[in-house]
Design goal:
mainly alpha; 8 helices; about 85% helix; globular
């Protein structure tokens, strides 16, 4: 699979997901609900298993899960003490930017995973690439959702969407110049698992439900979890 095809595919998949969220922003509670489930799905079915699998030869399960807790705790401190969560519109803007930035870094790491997989073999690289491209659509939804729900406008949401769409491409290109060790990658994935766990469970789920306490919001969250489970399992 030519590398330039992957670059285009990762960009388009993320962009389409974000445009979908922007198009249906009047249904934001359902989109945020789905996004919450998708973020949790990525955490439990992708990031954490990958961290444990990559790090099993270097660290104990307890060590890696401790990093998950550390990531969760760090995001909690930043959200509550530094960003002053929910007090003023400018603080909400900071939270939206921070959340979108975290998701974009995850997309960058996705690109790195594709590049490193190709360093082992083209077959493995193609499999990892297809998995990333498949869930990039939900990545685009997640990035736009977290900006919109924190009082961001369409322009800011679209800017972050472009950053998130470009991030995997930059990740792939980066691997042409250096290689990261397997043990370090496992630590990063464990830390980001904690970040995503907080974003999904402590931020997006409550936000999707408190203004719209309806069954469809919960169904959207479960659908997000199920969708990511199917995508990751099939990939």
């Amino acid at each position: 699979m030519p590398i330039f095809v992957l670059l285009i595919a990762t960009f388009i998949s993320t962009l389409l997901g974000g445009l979908f969220a922007l198009r249906f922003k009047d249904k934001l509670h359902l989109i945020v609900g789905f996004s919450a489930g998708a973020v949790l799905g990525v955490t439990f079915f992708d990031l954490m298993p990958e961290a444990l699998e990559l790090g099993k030869s270097f660290y104990s399960v307890k060590t890696l899960l401790s990093l998950v807790v550390l990531g969760f705790s760090l995001y909690l401190v930043i959200d509550r003490l530094i960003l002053l969560h929910g007090y003023k519109e400018e603080e909400c803007s900071k939270i939206g930017n921070f959340g979108a930035g975290t998701l974009s870094i995850h997309s960058f790491l996705d690109g790195i995973s594709i590049g490193f997989a190709f360093q082992f073999s083209e077959t493995l690289g193609a499999i990892v690439a297809l998995a990333v491209i498949a869930h990039n659509f939900s990545d685009g939804i997640n990035t736009v959702s977290i900006v919109l729900k924190n009082k961001g406008d369409k322009i800011r949401s679209f800017k972050w969407l472009i950053i998130d769409a470009i991030a995997p491409t930059l990740g792939i290109i980066t691997t042409l110049f250096f290689a990261i060790s397997q043990d370090m990658l496992s630590l990063l994935l464990a830390l980001f698992s904690g970040f995503f766990l907080y974003i999904g469970a402590s931020d997006l789920i409550p936000e999707s439900y408190h203004n719209h306490p309806v069954a469809w919001t919960t169904i959207a969250t479960l659908l997000g979890i199920g969708t990511l489970y199917l995508i990751i399992s099939l990939a």
